[in-house]
Amino acid sequence: MSFNLANITAMDLDTGEFDPYYGPYVQIVSGLSLQQALLDSLSEISSLADKVAAQSVLHHRCQAGKWSVAEIWQHLVDTEIIFQYRALRIARGDTTNLAGFDQDEFVQQSRASGRNLEELRQLMLAVRNSSLLLFQMFNDEELKKRGVASGSEISVRALGFLICGHQKHHFKIIRERYC
């Protein structure tokens, strides 16, 4: 059974449903329903991949010490999978304080420099489709459940919006600095 995510917007979130650090990510998608944010991001993935391909910037770094476009894409995939996992555990009533992760260490270990654009595109599309199905599986009560991740309270529905806002944030960086 699929639940309707069209009636849930980021503006419905209480400030206590996510750490203020994530505020900019929520703000980016504030005018969208969770369903629309997840669906819109699917077309954004392919659109930006086409632009990255046309510009041949997949392994480019905008400056020394910054992540390449491939590393940013792999970071998005890794983070989304972690946020999915957190959402599932919280929705199922797990009260464990879910550990954070070192994004720089993840990128360093990701082997993103050996991946091609089509591989990254397909990986990101598969993970995003998985997120869409996951969040459709949750009912209203589960979407509102809160748990603790990285030492801060967060709700299941906030994690859905963070996934989308996080992608939009990084895609904006790619468009501004790389393409």
Structural overview:
With 179 residues, this protein is mainly alpha-helical. It has one domain: Up-down Bundle (Four Helix Bundle (Hemerythrin (Met), subunit A)). Helices cover 59% and strands 6% of the residues. It has helices at residues 23-28, 34-55, 69-91, 103-109, 117-137, 140-144, 156-177; strands at 97-98, 146-149, 152-155. A 3-stranded mixed sheet has the order 1-2-3. Strand 2 and strand 3 (152-155) form a beta hairpin. Helix 3 packs across helix 4 (103-109). The longest helix has 23 residues, at 69-91. The chain is globular and about 45 Å long. The protein starts with 22 loop residues before the first helix and ends with a helix.
